[in-house]
Write a structure and sequence with these properties.
alpha/beta; Arc Repressor Mutant, subunit A; D-Maltodextrin-Binding Protein, domain 2; five-stranded mixed sheet; 11 helices; 42% helix
Length: 305
């Protein structure tokens, strides 16, 4: 069986379009289509549901076999990457997922890996934690940054840092000079928040509910970047403290730590537990080994080099 054809099949399952899959695999569309037909002939089953305009989706057989195809391709890529490491320079792509709250911390966490291995490239995708867990288990992602309560026994989990919740708003939202604010006070603001399926939002809703407040935000979005755009218009939002790095916050806004109670969930790195870790994942964990990640993030927050 031709692994290259399996790679085309996996790309097609992800892109759901012959042209986009061909571009991702750096081949012509006719070449990819022919390879898929050869794979179907070799396996004796139809993998792709085709329509007049191209691909409609995977058949039942395609859905069942693409999981094994993805595992096979991942294993072959792992062998290739390990060979480059043995030759003295790891050459691989880290496919990393992250929940929105950990996006701002990702560059700080990945920098040691990139510094140690110039041949490593990184692709980052943002999604809710349950989506990322599924993609890690299906080998669509190598690893992901999520809250540590995912509870999947088939995952390797490495705690990284504790997240602190911060209220961000314009001066009009701040009616006193305190450096912190209570959850009850947060609930009295005009808030824009992440969408309900995001774990960060679940934690925020639980905290507000415990403070005796039920919030129905008029604006919800799946990224902090969008929410901060509404903050510029006079709203307030709740973010993770790592978003205070660099220049993420709009000019003229103020950030205050949310207390009473203090809630500090843990952000962790997850990877599939079955089989040996991908070389690039092992390189990532090695680059963080012995590192005080909390201190690393505090240094980045303070702007020190």
């Amino acid at each position: 069986m031709n692994v290259r054809h399996l790679r085309f099949f996996v790309a097609l399952s992800e892109k759901r379009h012959f042209g986009r899959a061909a571009a991702a695999c750096d081949v012509s569309q006719p070449a990819l289509s022919m390879a898929i037909r050869r794979l179907e002939s070799e396996l004796g089953v139809r993998l792709i549901e085709r329509g007049g305009a191209g691909m409609i989706g995977l058949t039942d057989a395609g859905e069942a076999l693409v999981i094994r195809a993805r595992q096979t391709v991942s294993s072959v890529e792992g062998i290739t990457a390990e060979a480059t490491r043995l030759r003295g320079q790891l050459n691989a792509t880290l496919r990393l997922g992250t929940v929105p709250t950990a996006v701002a911390a990702a560059p700080t966490l990945i920098a040691p890996l990139i510094d140690a291995h110039p041949g490593v490239r990184v692709e980052i995708r943002t999604a809710p934690a349950d989506v990322l867990v599924g993609e890690v288990l299906r080998h669509e992602l190598d690893a992901a940054l999520v809250y540590d309560d995912v509870g999947a026994p088939s995952l390797e989990l490495r705690p990284l840092y504790s997240e602190r919740f911060v209220l961000v708003g314009t001066p009009d939202d701040d009616d006193d000079d305190k450096v912190d604010v209570s959850w009850r006070s947060v609930g009295e603001r005009s808030l824009c928040l992440l969408t309900p399926e995001m774990q960060h939002r679940v934690i925020v809703d639980d905290a507000l509910r415990s403070a005796g407040v039920v919030v129905r935000p008029r604006v919800q979005a799946d990224s902090f970047a969008l929410l901060l755009g509404f903050v510029r218009q006079g709203w307030a939002t709740v973010i993770g403290h790592t978003w205070l790095m660099g220049e993420h916050l709009p000019a003229g806004t103020r950030a205050r730590t949310i207390l009473d109670p203090v809630i500090e969930p843990t952000i962790a790195l997850i990877a599939a537990a079955a089989g040996p870790p991908a070389p690039v994942v092992r390189a990532l964990t090695d680059s963080l080994a012995g590192t005080d990640v909390e201190a690393l993030i505090e240094t980045a927050l303070s702007g020190e080099s």
